[in-house]
């Protein structure tokens, strides 16, 4: 039976404040045997000031390609935005010139990565790197930029910032390097911070400290935080809203509390079941059976259907549209009223 649920074009939005970042119907393609094929398709989400949106999904689901598109960092010959809109406080970034994107990046919108050395130059003192980042966007003296460098290192909890500003990245521990990268990203006081798996390479204690720091920065600076992770545990820790990605598409989006309490997409349910706390409870790892299809292959019906325990014939025939699941939620499942078993 195909149940209720009204079809919607975009995720419904809570109207309390206008989004700082609004992505609509974004499709990103890569060339495979000289034919452009989508690896991100019809992705829509928005993030408000002071809010954290989690973008969650297995490796290869299109999270990084989505964030690189938002940053204007897709490399020209190996990926392209084929469709959609990316607006930063109302300003359209799709189709914007390279100079304009260079101006915005690091100033209004910044990104941190899993590996701090992606952003930090190993042969340059940390303070110098922050000074350069500030002066790229602000007409300030070296002395002023240096004061800013000490200020942001202090802000992110680097002890003795006034002297550590003269250290090289290799003189910092992994956790401190991550703090330095966060400091550099915040130096120009951005509106949006994209964090792409920023704690994945860190041990659990440091991971918790960095999550605390990002939460604190979001609240104190009013950042719109787009937090990318493959871990539902991390999502539970930091996100207000969640967009779940599978095979290049957002398959479910909801407030974090709702999503954990009542997942509406079978893939979300699978991710919740795979959370480590449940492993302890159940004594086994309830992995989702099967593998996602190759990113550039288009299955006929729902991309998750081969792995879905709730599959019916129609699932393999038509690609599912987004159905609304209440005030703010959407699911890309033709059975939105399906009572899933939940994570517990
Ligand atoms: N230039 C490319 N050519 C072909 N496939 C690509 C290219 N770049 C990325 N992909 C594929 O796009 C998919 C999405 O990648 P990515 O956004 O990095 O995933 P995630 O960050 O969720 O792990 C992956 O399956 C990846 O192999
Ligand atoms: Mg990635």
Automatic annotation (TrEMBL):
Membrane topology: Peripheral membrane protein
One Gene Ontology molecular-function label: ATP hydrolysis activity
Cellular component annotations (GO), alphabetically ordered: plasma membrane
Compartment list: Cell membrane
UniProt xrefs under Gene3D superfamilies: P-loop containing nucleotide triphosphate hydrolases
Coiled-coil ranges from the UniProt annotation: none
Superkingdom of origin: Bacteria
Matches recorded under Pfam families: ABC_tran (PF00005), oligo_HPY (PF08352)
InterPro entries according to UniProt: AAA+_ATPase, ABC_Ni/Peptide_Import, ABC_transporter-like_ATP-bd, ABC_transporter-like_CS, Oligopep_ABC_C, P-loop_NTPase
Family: Belongs to the ABC transporter superfamily.
PANTHER family: DIPEPTIDE TRANSPORT ATP-BINDING PROTEIN DPPD (PTHR43297:SF2), OLIGOPEPTIDE TRANSPORT ATP-BINDING PROTEIN APPD (PTHR43297)
Full protein name: ABC transporter ATP-binding protein
Species whose genome carries this gene: Pseudonocardia asaccharolytica DSM 44247 = NBRC 16224
């Amino acid at each position: 039976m195909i149940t209720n649920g009204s079809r919607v074009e975009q995720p419904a939005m809570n109207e309390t404040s206008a989004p700082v970042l609004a992505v609509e119907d974004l499709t990103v393609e890569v060339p495979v045997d000289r034919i452009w094929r989508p690896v991100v398709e019809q992705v829509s989400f928005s993030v408000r000031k002071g809010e954290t949106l989690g973008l969650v999904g297995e490796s290869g689901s299109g999270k990084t390609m989505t964030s690189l598109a938002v940053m204007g960092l897709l490399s020209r010959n190996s990926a392209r935005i084929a469709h959609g809109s990316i607006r930063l406080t109302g300003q359209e970034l799709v189709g914007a010139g390279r100079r304009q994107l260079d101006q915005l990046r690091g100033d209004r919108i910044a990104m941190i990565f899993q590996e701090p050395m992606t952003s930090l130059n190993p042969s340059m003192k940390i303070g110098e790197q922050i000074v350069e980042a500030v002066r790229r966007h602000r007409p300030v003296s070296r002395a002023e930029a240096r004061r800013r460098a000490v200020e942001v290192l202090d802000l992110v909890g680097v002890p003795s910032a006034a002297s550590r500003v003269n250290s090289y990245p290799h003189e910092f521990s992994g956790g401190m390097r991550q703090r330095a990268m966060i400091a550099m990203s915040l130096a120009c006081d951005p509106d949006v911070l994209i964090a792409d798996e920023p704690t994945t390479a860190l041990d659990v204690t440091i991971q918790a400290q960095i999550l605390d720091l990002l939460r604190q920065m979001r609240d104190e600076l009013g950042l719109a935080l787009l937090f990318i992770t493959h871990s539902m545990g991390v999502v539970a820790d930091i996100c207000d809203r969640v967009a779940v990605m599978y095979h290049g598409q957002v398959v479910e989006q909801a407030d974090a509390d709702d999503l954990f309490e009542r997942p509406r997409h079978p893939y979300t349910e699978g991710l919740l079941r795979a959370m480590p706390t449940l492993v302890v409870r159940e004594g086994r790892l309830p992995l989702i059976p099967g593998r996602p299809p190759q990113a550039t292959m288009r299955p006929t019906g729902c991309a998750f259907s081969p792995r879905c325990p709730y599959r019916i014939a129609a699932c393999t025939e038509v690609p599912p549209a987004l159905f609304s699941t209440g005030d703010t939620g959407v699911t890309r499942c033709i059975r939105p009223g399906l009572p899933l078993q939940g994570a517990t």
